[in-house]
Amino acid sequence: MSGQLMDRAAPTRMTASPPAPPDAAELTGFWGPAQARRWQHGYARRLTITDAAVIALALAVSHTLRVPEELWSSHWLLSAALLTGWMAALHLAGSRDWKIFGSGFPEYRRVVHATFTLFGLLAILAFAMRWEISRGYLLMALPLGLGLLLISRWLWRRQLNSRRRRGRWRHRSVVVGEASKAAHVAAQIRRAGGATGITVTETITHCSVAGIVDTVTSAAADMVILTSADALGPKSMRELGWQLSTLDVDVVVVPSLTDVAGPRIHARPLAGLPLIHVDYPRLSGRAALVKRCFDIAFSLTVLTLLAPLLAAVAVAVRWDSPGPAFFRQERIGLRHTRFGMLKFRSMVTDAEGHRQRLLAQSEGNGVLFKMKQAPGSPA
To answer: Are residues 307 and 254 in the same domain?
Structure first.
């Protein structure tokens, strides 16, 4: 069946800094899926050991400094249970998933989410079961443990990026798709450097399933990046997935969306089709509240700092001509709402009354009345 689905025509390749083709031994040695799995499991194991060490340290310090003597023995059991539960929460939250290695904020967010979920559940159980737990112990264990976890993850991320810059702990990938899309994706990956952890070994255009599999095998790649599936069709795509699954090669699909923030992209399956929803960049809820608070705080701070200068300008306006220092006018803003605007007066106080008489001298564009020199002001 696979022979009927595959076109055995040779693929079109654009090689991106290719190394010498590896032989069969190298596919399970320094390069290839087997090596990728080894460093992924090794890195996850290092994270597990470090997580356990920093959590145990935080719990021991909290127990020593904040637990009363009468609760000393019972809280050792609580510390052991917390250590086990904390490690399980980090695992269930996917904080050691290889897909987020070195990603920064997504990894830290999973650590924070797992930690607060655990302590939230503990608080509910303690209240419901009326357990006698030292509040000082929990108030110290939570921030101390979370802080040490984030610091350790940051240090491991630096180590990971350092190894990647030296060419280790990276994914060897083959980019597949239409020429312009594939070239764009490959260029973006190269521009990002070692931060992505991906090395583009080959770029293939207009090829068959057999051609992709042959290229992946010869390049000892552990990842295929699909930028377009138009040339293959659904059946061939399914066949390609089966072939790559047998080789333990990961498949990454890149949609034709660039420069779109991650929180605006949502994926969901529908009738076996992966659909990607892209939200418009609107501010709402907590984000809108944070922005509004920042706007007000920043504006008040700047106005306070500029108050002496603004006062000097107001005095200069009053000194130059009689009348108020400020000019008030109504403007049209967002969604056609009206708002009042204050600015320093740069014209005579009755400038609006001279408009009809001075229309012939307007230097505006025909719609906007504008004069460089206000009537009655010094030249």
So the answer is: no
Q: Report how far residue 90's alpha carbon sits from residue 92's, in angstroms, rounded to the nearest whole number.
A: 6
CA dist 99 and 123 (Å) reads 32
For residue 193, the SS3 value is helix
Residue 20: which pLDDT band, with cuts at 50, 70 and 90?
Answer: very low
Domain that holds residue 186: 2-29+169-278
Tell me, yes or no, whether 373 lies in a domain. Answer: no
pTM of the full structure: 0.60
**Looking at residue 336, what DSSP letter applies?**
G
Tally of domains in the chain: 3
Looking at the structure, do residues 95 and 213 belong to the same domain, yes or no? no
133, 241: one domain: no
Give me 369's structure tokens. Answer: 């009345």
Task: State the greatest distance between any 2 C-alpha atoms of the chain, in Å, as a whole number.
Answer: 93
Indicate if 53 and 13 belong to the same structural domain.
no
pLDDT tens for each residue of 253-294 = 877 665 565 666 666 665 555 666 666 666 777 878 888 899
H-helix segments, the chain: 2-5, 24-27, 33-66, 72-92, 105-129, 135-165, 179-192, 209-219, 233-246, 285-320, 355-358
Tokens standing for residue 316: 């200069």
**Do 174 and 248 fall into the same domain?**
yes
Do 75 and 140 reside in the same domain of the chain? yes
One domain for residues 63 and 140: yes
Nearest to 376 by CA among 345, 351, 356, 359: 351
What confidence score (pLDDT) does residue 12 get? 46
Q: How far apart are the first and last CA of the chain?
A: 90
Q: Is residue 179 part of a domain?
A: yes
CA torsion, ordered 282, 284, 289, 292, to nearest 10 deg:
30
Same domain, 15 and 41: no
Q: How many other C-beta atoms lie within 10 A of the C-beta of residue 190?
A: 14
Under DSSP, the state recorded for 11 is P
Reported as a single tens digit per residue, the pLDDT across 214-258 is 888 888 888 888 887 666 777 888 888 888 888 888 888 877 665
Q: Is residue 361 part of a domain?
A: no
